[in-house]
From TrEMBL:
This is Glutamine synthetase type III. Residues 85-179 form the GS beta-grasp domain. GO terms for molecular function: glutamine synthetase activity. PROSITE patterns: GLNA_ATP, GS_BETA_GRASP, GS_CATALYTIC. Belongs to the glutamine synthetase family. Pfam families: Gln-synt_C, Gln-synt_C-ter, GSIII_N. SUPFAM superfamilies: Glutamine synthetase/guanido kinase. GO terms for biological process: glutamine biosynthetic process. InterPro entries: Gln-synt_C (IPR040577), Gln_synt_N (IPR008147), Gln_synth/guanido_kin_cat_dom (IPR014746), Gln_synth_cat_dom (IPR008146), Gln_synth_gly_rich_site (IPR027303), GS_Type-3 (IPR052725), GSIII_N (IPR022147). Residues 184-619 form the GS catalytic domain.
Amino acid sequence: MSNFRFKALEIAQSRQAMAVAAPTERVADFFGSYTFNNEVMRTLLSPEAYIKVTEAIQTNGQIDRNIADEVAGAMKSWATSKGATHYTHWFQPLTGETAEKHDAFFDITIDGKAIEKFKGSALVQQEPDASSFPNGGLRNTFEARGYTGWDPSSPAFLMDNGAGGKTLCIPSVFISYTGEALDYKTPLLKALNALDKAATAVCQYFDRNITKVTPTLGPEQEYFVVDRALFYARPDLVLAGRTVFGHAPARGQQLEDHYFGSIPPRINAFMVDFEFESMKLGMPVRTRHNEVAPGQFEVAPTFEEVNLAIDHNALLMDLMEKIAEKHNLKVLFHEKPFAGINGSGKHNNWSMGTNTGVNLLAPSTKPKESLRFLTFLVNVVKAVHDNADLLRASIASAGNEYRLGANEAPPAIVSVFLGESLTQALNDLETKSEVTVNKGDNVYYKLGLNRIPSLMRDNTDRNRTSPFAFTGNKFEFRAVGSSANSASTMTVLNAIVADQLNKFKTDLDERLAKGEKKELAIVDILKAYYSNTKRILFEGNGYSDEWVEEAARRGLSNIKSSPEALGVYVQPESLALFERTGVLSHAEVESRYEIELEKYIKNVQIESRVMGDLAMNHVVSTALKYQNKLAETARNLVELGMVAEAEPIKDILREISTRVLVIKKGVEAMIESRKKANNTTDTAERAKLYATEVKDHFEIIRYEVDKLEEIVDDEDWPLIKYRELLFVK
């Protein structure tokens, strides 16, 4: 039992669920208690300042510096009263992680007195060093200046440092000295603003009272949880975020018993703990459950405005990792941490709401409302159809490349599911010019069980194999990876819908200028849009090989490689769209393309190095030691005259030698292909080589290693096995 693996197992098996106490009896009593929210502002700000701040948030207006000084003073008083000693501009650079630089409220006056100080200038703007953050060639290394700017639409919050102190975190944008966006939030805010303007203009044809449209989002977060000791006993999990080796356990997810099953005690305690902390931070998490794979779980929030929802998701991921440490657990957000079982996604449930309380994607039986619903529905479908490759680019990553199309996630083919009722409604629109939408309000199941109340049926079924599915009053984009910052996808989605709505308005205005009746003109335009885009609609099994063939016949793209997908960003039509909508400049798009390619290269490079190290220094060396033991046993049998009995052992010896040779040659070939890629100066070509020539060796090496795991004595095998990792209790 000297094997490090068994020591880790002993530690993991000795752990018990931690007790977690609620802050108060009712969630409503502590929800948002760590946020500088609307209620706190109303209490601490003067009426004039409060009105100006809320108006600026609602209209995307600027806040005067004198008002900022008052807000800063109120923030400082509120934060320090709750134990905060520092403040930071909390932002989301293009690393994929959140970033923060803490400054103390504490300061020294000229005469040496200690004071607490926080001015409006510090609230509005800070200057983190921008040289060490990805910029894609926008700045030289020696050009270090960059700025963070306060985003008042996302409430400031307190983060517990875990050592008795708290930090006031101020959600912020991050730009370079020359004004280019260096973060996820800045272009997202621009895309949301573009959609607001475009959608509001279209709404005006139906209701003059609609003056603002707010996109909403509910990102469902999937993740795996493993014991902390077992995590650190797997170097590949520590360094690459996923297991590069591991033979499938006898029992994985084939019994289909984990999904929605009883949550293991240690995991439940962890969930309860991070949910309490989330509620303090104003994050409305409300759903928890086991996912399909063993060791896999999901948390889902209530819908919020997109910008806030994305801030909350990034904060939630940070919080989950911190809380997991308290429970001696590790959270895995990688899209495919384990082979042979489901990977993890981040299902983005997206819709649009008006200032009058209308969900623009909610069906209605009233003719005018029905026409408005179909207007937005068809325009969204057309936006996705016309920009499917760009939407595919927004979800491209090294991790998601393993997951897409792997029997638990949508394929790399972008398609749209509307359901039988809506598809029929659109077919009627196309062929008969009739607008009829069945809400499903009065459709019930008759179960024949008197004790069971009637169950109402939705107007569509759910298609979990569709990457972009209509689910009753929203679209669910299921193809986003679990580790991703959804801002990239939401920037693209909101930008393409805004662009399409602008085109629709232009088309409609041209017809109205000719004297056509508004309703007839709208129906005629929608008919043409639907006819030209219905090939993207698919109601069947998106996981099937038949769909891949059918999609090819329809002319739909199937971009499997991340470098190829990312290349869509810099195509002329993509650059033009971002420029038209004011979301990203050409330079900003090109820099992001460069950053994403570099990120892809580095992730695959790290995985390759980890694989080579584990294969040669852990697996092969262990296999050879075990082979020596078997060889000695075989010799002893032969010396005893038991030649026939020694033959099965000799067969195992030959198999080990053969597999070790394949591994050694595979690792050497992988290293050579990596050298070739590294010596390629063009980033796009280097990424392509990593996606093909380097990654081509992964499965070859893995197959042989996993076969050796079946052969080598369990007492000698150095790596924590899947059966030990996946079943935390």
